[in-house]
Design goal:
alpha/beta, 14 helices, four-stranded parallel β-sheet, 14 strands, 38% helix, binds iron/sulfur cluster, 422 residues, single chain
Length: 422
């Protein structure tokens, strides 16, 4: 199993139980998760849980579903709605990338100020100091914070920024104090990367790379293989104001959008570290002069969910199903991992499983929803791997299980399977 370094802050030590609407929970999945937790307190075991219904066998990932940051954001948002009847409540953008949760919030009267790409849906000029604006789990940019404060909005009170995202900002700030520039591994238009970029850029020169290919191109400017002037066109929109490519890539540190593929961030950091070693003739001992060690900015949930998929992939199966919002970054990385080995279907909910023959799912490479016919093989038992992203309610995963099982003559009911985990 591949392994990556991970943030050393353990959310489980906080033992905080969040008050998440029951409708998002699943008795079946809670029973399974609790049992697995009891048997494996230190989370060393990434093998999946088998739900054996006879003709269909579902292998459920060891870790999936709501993370600390998402539960925290849901709790604060729903509490805010409850405690403020009659007030105008806005979310800066989607609180988390899950369509069900966002529709629930809209149905309760919450309005979104921006779409996920940062385009305005409601102008800030419509806001008044009495209004409530909830900052989502991804955090936001300093510029937006400033604009809201100028209107008189109390953003601290309703800030659901995840502590793991703040940890990245703090780490970037600490590195900046030691005069390193920051390379952010992230999707430039994602809310979290825009927020992290803004916080980092306020302290030090910052540049964003999306993947290894871009990192290799960035390294050519460090090596002097490419003329400096080309940087500004090639990385347009991805570097901080005043970035001086000649001077600002001499001492660097890497942080990431917390939901990127952890192994990709590690590979990018290792690649840049080696570039610095070669360029400045450094050793493992002296590398700190040019490269800041930032291995601990990976989020625990990203690590656990991705590690659980590696565990899942060791199972012999016919297909994999990954549940989550199409625009969810962490979910899309779970899909990429599954695709390496199995036919994989990225769905938002059980509704995308149209029938035993037809499934509607998102094709990441074409960036569009597609339909596949005969997605379930004829053989029996059919073995299905199942996981979900950090913003997907367990209730949705249970509904997917129920739908899949309904296509077969099941040897057990859901309750009987649940009893095995009590
Ligand atoms: S995935 Fe990690 S960083 Fe993102 S909200 Fe969840 S716990 Fe926080």
């Amino acid at each position: 199993m591949r392994c990556v370094a991970v943030c050393n802050f353990d959310p489980h030590k906080l033992m905080k139980k969040f008050n998440v609407p029951l409708v998002y929970r699943s008795p079946l999945i809670s029973a399974i998760k609790n049992k697995r937790k009891q048997n494996d307190k230190y989370k060393k075991d990434f093998t999946p849980s088998l739900l054996d219904f006879g003709q269909v066998q579902i292998y459920l990932a060891r870790h999936f579903g709501f993370c600390y940051g998402v539960e925290n954001a849901i709790e604060i948002s729903f509490k805010t709605i409850e405690e403020n009847p009659g007030k105008k409540i806005y979310l800066l953008s989607e609180m988390i990338h899950n369509p069900l949760v966002n529709v629930d919030l809209k149905n309760r009267g919450v309005q979104f100020l921006m779409d996920t790409k940062g385009n305005m849906l409601v102008p800030f000029s419509d806001l008044s100091p009495d209004d409530i604006v909830i900052v989502p789990a991804f955090g936001t940019t300093l510029q937006i914070e400033k604009e809201l404060k100028q209107i008189g909005i109390e953003i601290e009170k309703y800030n659901t920024t995840c502590p793991f995202v703040e940890k990245v900002w703090n780490r970037a700030e600490a590195i900046a104090k030691n005069k390193y520039s920051i390379v952010v591994h992230g999707k430039p238009r994602h809310e979290e990367t825009r927020a992290t970029f803004s916080h980092s850029a306020s302290n030090t020169p910052t540049v964003v790379v999306t993947d290894m290919q871009e990192t290799i191109e960035l390294a050519k400017f460090i090596n002097g293989e490419k003329p400096y002037k080309d940087f500004y066109k090639e990385f347009e929109g991805k570097f901080s104001e005043g970035f001086n490519v000649e001077n600002d890539l001499q001492r660097i540190g890497v942080v990431n959008q917390t939901t990127m593929l952890a192994s990709d961030t590690q590979a990018i950091a290792d690649y840049l570290k080696n570039i610095m070693i070669k360029k400045y003739d450094l050793t493992e001992e002296s590398i700190g002069e040019r490269f800041a060690d930032t291995r601990d900015t990976l989020c625990y949930a990203t690590y656990e969910n991705q590690s659980a998929v590696y565990g899942l992939l060791e199972t012999e199966a016919d297909l994999a199903i990954v549940v989550g919002g199409y625009n969810s970054s962490n979910t899309s990385h779970l899909v990429e991992l599954c695709e390496e080995k199995f036919p994989t279907y990225f769905i938002r909910s059980e509704e995308d499983i149209v029938s035993s023959k037809e499934i509607s799912h998102f094709n990441l490479h074409k960036n569009e929803a597609v339909t596949t016919i005969s997605f379930l093989p004829e053989k029996k038992p059919v073995k299905i791997l199942l996981t979900s992203g950090a913003s997907c309610p367990d209730a949705v995963v249970e509904a997917v299980i129920t739908k899949l099982v309904s296509f077969y003559k099941a040897s057990k009911t859901l309750t009987e399977v649940m009893d095995e985990y009590r």
